[in-house]
Amino acid sequence: MAIFVTRAQWGASTPKLVNHNITPANGGVTIHHTGGSKVARSNHADCDNSVRNIQNQHMNVNGWADIAYSHIVCSHGYVFQGRGEHVRSAANGSTSGNQNWYAVLGLVGGAPANYDTITDGLLDAFRYAINRLRVQGGAANAINCHKDHVGTLCPGNLEPYVRWGDLEP
Ligand SMILES: [Zn+2]
Ligand SMILES: [Zn+2]
Predict the structure, then answer these.
(1) Which ligand is closest to the CA of 153, given by its number?
(2) Cα separations (Å) of 79 from 17, 105, 114, 151, 165?
(3) Using one digit for the tens of pLDDT, what is the confidence trace for 94-139?
């Protein structure tokens, strides 16, 4: 069973702006990975630092309002609260993507043949996050990939799990 980590618990900065203009009943939940190199931490104690670094990058380098994702999940089965329910995402790469779809990031990455291990804990955490976005956030039942909105390799080796339905809560 996944464990939810609130923004206060991971030490999130306060958003610059909270935009409630999202209509996820018309879309669902979009899946992301972190990038082209391996990023998973062996020790869960390091994961909140990874999340804080992403938020810092998004707010203080990219100039965005907050961490771009609705929630963030790690290999150890934890769900870090991102923008949360009923808040527009900024991660999906298109206006319609951010209007109609929440965004959940997995803290995994790598080249296709040298990728972070996709653990049962990671998959459990994705299912928990997706269920929460449906029950508390009104998301429709569809689950898709970042690459379905825009030209990108994201979500890397997570794509088959999306296509096979393994992330269905
Ligand atoms: Zn992505
Ligand atoms: Zn972790």
Answers:
(1) 1
(2) 22, 10, 24, 27, 19
(3) 999 999 999 999 999 999 999 999 999 999 999 999 999 999 999 9
Please report, for the domain that includes residue 49, its CATH number: 3.40.80.10
Selection from 98, 70, 71, 92 nearest residue 3 by Cα? 71
Is 160 among the domain residues? yes
Q: Is residue 169 part of a domain?
A: no
Output the CA 48–ligand 2 centroid distance in Å: 7
Residue 117 domain-assigned (yes or no): yes
Quote the number of domains for the chain.
1
- Of all ligands present, the nearest one to the C-alpha of 48 is 2
Which residues have CB atoms below 5 A from the ion given as ligand 2?
44, 47, 74, 76
